[in-house]
Structures are given as structure tokens and as C-alpha cells.
Amino acid sequence: MRNEDGELKVMTRSLRFLYSLTLLSFCVLHSAFCISAQDDPPDTAPPPLKIVSKDERQKLEAEDDIKDRTNLALRMMNARLGSAEMHSVNKDFDTMFRELGVFHALVDDSVTFLEKRNTNNKKVLDTFKKLEIALRGFIPRLETVRRELPLRYEDYVRLLMKFVRDARMRAIDPMFGDTVVKTKTEI
């Protein structure tokens, strides 16, 4: 079959197919090159162990009063975060990372301890409030530490900041439950 110009239509179809195949292979090769040219993700440090030391655990368990235990835990958190800040300034990032792991464990332990207590008790609710206010002050300090870190450590600190925000929400939640404000039927 020939067209008006005298060329074969079969030849035109073959050329179009060959052109499409060439264009497709070029796109595939270009995509593969772009993907391989991207930077590899930074080598991130594994998260530190989230463990309260034996000495600190014994001190916390020795406190019987809820407020005293929470005050002690807050002092320990403050000390660990202060130590992490100091090690960050001194560029001792591995030690700073371990301190932040203990800080993380202390925050989690404190919130869990209070959640297990009777939340109808005014003393527990007051302690939740005190814990929430203290946790609020830790976030800017963590942000200051995060700004000076190498990328290797930054991911965990960002996740720790999110964890502290979530811990604040866990501390606030009992204050807004159905058991705190009496309904009209209970009055």
C-alpha cells in the first residue's frame, strides 16, 4: 500500500513505532539516572536506650506521695536535659544522646505513673497540671539542642519533641474527662 507521496504506510507505522520505543527508553533511562543521582539519606543514629537508671528508679519508687514523686521526676528530667544541653555545646553528641534517652524514659514513666492513679482525685489532677506546665518548658530547650546537632542525631530529637508534646496531651486529657465536671444529673 502506498500513500499519495508514494511511501509505504507500513514503513510509516514502523518508524512511528520505532520513534515511540526510542522515546520510551530515553524516559526510562533518564528516570533511572535521576533516581541514582539523588543523595543517599543521611546516616541516622539509632535511637538511644529509653531506660531509667537503677539509682533513679529506686529514688522514684521510694517516694510515696504523688506530688513529691512528680517533683523528684521533674528535677531528674531537668538535670538530664541540662546535661544533654551541656554535652551538645561541648560537641559530645553520643553522651548527649544517652542523656536524652534517659530524659525520654523519665517523661514516659511520670505520665504513665500518674495515669495509673485515680484521676478523680484533685491531688492527681493538680499533679497532672504541674507536669504539663513543666513539659511545656522542655520543648523550647529541646529545639535549641536540635538546631545545633548534626543531621545524624536530629531525627531522634525531633521525634522526642513530638513525644513530649504528646505527653503534654496525655497529661491534659484527664482534666477534661466526664468525671471532672459534674453534669446536671449528678448535681
Secondary structure tally: strands: 0
Low-confidence sequence ranges: none
Which overall shape is indicated by the principal axes computed on the Cα atoms?
Answer: elongated
Helix-strand makeup class: mainly alpha
Helix content: over 70%
Query: In whole angstroms, how far apart are the ends?
Result: 96 Å
Q: What pattern of helices and strands is seen along the backbone?
A: HHHHHH
Strand content: under 5%
What radius of gyration results from the CA coordinates?
A: 30 Å
* Tally of helical runs: 6
Mean of pLDDT: 82
Largest sheet: none
Give short descriptive properties of this protein.
single chain, 187 residues, mainly alpha, 6 helices
Could you describe the 3D structure shown?
By secondary structure, the protein is mainly alpha-helical. Helix content is 71%, strand content 0%. Helix 3 (66-89) runs antiparallel to helix 4 and helix 4 runs antiparallel to helix 5. It contains 6 helices and no strands. The chain is elongated.
